[in-house]
From TrEMBL:
It comes from Streptomyces resistomycificus. GO terms for molecular function: DNA-binding transcription factor activity; transcription cis-regulatory region binding. It holds the Pfam family HTH_18. Gene3D superfamilies: Homeodomain-like. It comes from the Bacteria. Residues 240-338 form the HTH araC/xylS-type domain. Keywords: DNA-binding, Transcription, Transcription regulation. SMART domains: HTH_ARAC. InterPro entries: AraC-type_N, Homeodomain-like_sf, HTH_AraC. This is HTH araC/xylS-type domain-containing protein. One of its GO terms (cellular component) is cytosol.
Amino acid sequence: MSLRDTDLPVRCSALQGLSALVTEIGGSGPELLAAYGFDEARIAEGNSFASLRLVERVLEETARRFALPDLGLRMAAQQDLHVLGPLAIAMENSRTIGEAVECASRYLFVYSPALSLKETDDPLGSPGVVGLRYTTTGISASPQAIDYGIGIVHRVLTLLHGDAPYGLRSVLLPHPRLAQESSYRAYFGAEVRFDCPSAALRVPSHLFSTPVRGGDDLLHDIAMDHLETHFGHQHVPMSDLVAAILSEQLGSSGPDLSKIARLLSLHPRSLQRSLSKEGTTFSGVVDRVRRSQALDLITRTDLSFSQIAASLGMQEQSSLTRAVRRWFDTSPSRLRREGLEPKGQSALTD
């Protein structure tokens, strides 16, 4: 299986609120999350990532299973700025909405390198109107994920405008209508068009000069310094990106430096240099991901050790046995019987 751009990571906070939403309509939110390898702790963890493909799958399958064609809109409606992680402080303390949008456009990769937001000319050519185009790198992006993403952009603009309407002219979506048209209009408060070339919000051009209410210049400058220092010359830490991609790939294809470098638009040597600057190596990241997944699969599932070895991209069960002894100073069978991580060991630390 070849890597795809939807294997790029997105922060797990994208699924914030899904469990509560499913439970509210009579399902079991925790069981749903567990079926995809998530739990509330992982979603709440600010620096936890999953592949965009997996998050899209969760949204699409949940929408079908529980007959929620407006799931993306429902998810967006319950989010606040802080779903964007480190971006939130800079945006909510921007001087103008235009400055906040510029910040989001520049640093949205901190939330996910698979997403982008760009100011454009009005797609319909109306004077005094501009477009905010939201795109994902996927060739066939998930409709629910697009509704969710463009819905968050609308939600953030509303919050930046004092939790009040900001003059949205219309919404353009690249897929057929998923829910009742009234659901879209109720959420956006404007006309929504479907089967368009791309997803975009059409907003008045003067919106960008509107002050952000309650912003603090000092906090904004501190937040921007933080973003520039930590992310100005790279995306999220390269080792985190590689780990998030590997976590979805080990069972279908073994760890391949060249494939992952190509996915990240890097030469393999450039990827190796980036990892070296972070004090690790590609093989070190592979080992960390395998260690984390092995602990979870051994202690939380009934899979055979040969199945676990295969899911970790190992050729033989004996490779798993040797690795577990190195990681945890015990055997896979003893680790499973104890059901607890051996004292002094951590599956998530190098």
